[in-house]
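Box 3.1. Reading complex inputs
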Amino acid sequence: MSEYLLEMRAIVKDFAGVKALDGIDLAVRAGECVGLCGENGAGKSTLMKVLSAVYPHGTWSGRILWEGRELQARSIRETEAAGIVIIHQELMLVPHLSVTENIFLGNEITNAFGMLDYEAMHRRAAALMAELRMPQVNVALPVSQYGGGHQQLIEIAKALNKQARLLILDEPTSSLTRAETEVLLDILRELKKKGVASVLISHKLEEIEAVCDTITVIRDGRHIGTRPMGELSVEQIIAMMVGREITELFPREPHAIGEVIFEARHVTCYDPDNPARKRVDDVSFALRRGEILGVAGLVGAGRTEMAMAIFGAYPGRSTLELWMEGRRLSVRSPQEAVAAGICLVPEDRKRHGIVPLMGVGHNITLSVLSAHARHGVVDSVGELRVIDRMIERMRIKTASSLLPIRGLSGGNQQKAVLAKMLQPAPRVLILDEPTRGVDVGAKYEIYKLMMAFVKEGMSILMISSELPELLGVADRVIVIGEGRLRGDFVNDGLSQEAVMAAAIGQTETPPAARAD
Ligand SMILES: Nc1ncnc2c1ncn2[C@@H]1O[C@H](COP(=O)(O)OP(=O)(O)OP(=O)(O)O)[C@@H](O)[C@H]1O
Ligand SMILES: [Mg+2]
């Protein structure tokens, strides 16, 4: 018997002649947690889709040995029956189905009469919620009632319910808070004790370091190395991933901060499903020219809702006043926001950010097609020039700007969305979790771009759940907790602890509503 539960050997997978995987090996022992690391587009998700038969046997070459025997699965059903369960990078929940229905989809419990046993399913679902420390979730409600972080944990509950022997987690923590991430990491540790193996893909290397026993690094579809975690530092993993040393993570460059240019006053958002409840409660802030204003807070604190309301895209009722250079703005739709000089790069790129079937290039110019149209005819040469410049500037990895954007890796889709929003050169740019799912090298590029923009006089409002990032790039940080403004700090040696304390409501500092 082989010492490995799983062995993937010399896997090759290409998409229309482009090699996404070029002879990759991966081995996992029972009860082992393997970290799979690599830059955006390296081939991590593709390798896991080969393993779980999202790409069935016959659509790739190489061998998969499961408990020493050849596995030639043609569907996810077959790999799940073998005990291989994947949690995809993008959420796969059905929004209008209940939490319970989602968890048991295709895996329902029936009673002695062959009828669906809702009571048993609800009970099991509630137990899973308790295990994931979300006892407040009502499993009978549709999953659309819950935010990104909760949905991610519901997806994890669904996988845990399937009795996996090998659990694949493709960037499971990208929308989780630190506390939620800790819960997940604890669960991975418990699974290891039970002999359940896992493959964890994450761009947050401290998570990899915290739970993985072994690291496999891939780059451009090739296997770069496999080592015990104990032999590698985070710096060494980064160097293996990108093929060079990255010494500085946050390229903070000096830039002039001018007068107040934009103000949002008394932003209040009512819950679309429960109009008596305020998701955002009377938040005011000012943004100066050339300033990067960070917005910290726990997931669910109301930051995304606030950004959507400012952009005219909040789905429920909201009241607010917006001022640009001392003039009151009227913004009732994203079109009006863009016309007023405000752009938003949304958090959920799948829902709001991209048109999946359209080419990468068209996705970039979508918001400004009118700028390329003369007498109603799209100036395609001009458009192509803009597209190629952005693809190069953002280092978007795509074989051609004509390929559908859904074929790009997650991180490269994020860059394409960013590129698209930057086309009208806004005065105020709102970035909601701009580096989610983006690799270290590309993060650095995004920060560099932000620095270049503020030097040109743009002002940036940056929502981020990654405190090191906020403290690494923001000039000032406001903190939102339970829909209220809980802090306003100049980022001059600001500590993570101070921001966290404000986020959970432990400080008495009266928030400054205005910067001046
Ligand atoms: N359906 C597809 N059609 C065409 N090309 C694809 C498709 N899926 C993936 N690719 C290409 O294969 C390569 C590997 O993509 P993959 O999604 O596996 O990357 P990844 O390592 O998971 O990156 P990320 O960290 O950004 O999620 C990329 O160059 C991508 O553009
Ligand atoms: Mg991926």
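In summary: The first strand starts at residue 6 and ends at 15.
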